[in-house]
Amino acid sequence: MNIGSIKQNDAGIFVGKIATLTIAMTIALREVQSSNPKAPKYEVLALSASRAWVRVGALFELFSNGTGESFLNGKIEDPSLAAPLYISAFRQEDGSFNLVWSRPTRRRDLAAEVAAKTDDALPPLPGDATEAPPVQEGLGESSAEHGFGGEQQEPGRRQRKPRETEAAE
Prior knowledge:
Strand order of the largest sheet: 1-2-3-4-5-6-7-8
Number of strands: 8
Order of helices and strands: EEEEEEEEHH
Helix content: under 10%
Shape: elongated
Radius of gyration: 33 Å
């Protein structure tokens, strides 16, 4: 979905607007001067409420597999945003860019994966008399019912053994 456009002004600076239901910002692109081939092509600057330019993202130049045409891809991220805004910029015939947003897709949908691996049968409810839980070897008795060493305790109350010093007195 198109959320804005960027045009080159008389000074040669790419300036534009992004508008959605919750975002209205003026942005500018500043070319990055770097010899690193992995560096972004442009920094994305946004105009703050105090009319200062703030760096909020970067755009990288990518090429279409089908046509070989170049486009810009990156994100805008700021603490005021609930989530990063992933954008692509496509050059138009007049030299301007149309800005398009995209929502990143997850590589794996965990809920669908779990649902595919389980059957529809539900396990029995706790305390259901139809199926007793399996007995596991090596587990001790509950300390709520029995004291340490096999002593029977009064339900709902813990008994305190006297210390050796108290017993000697």
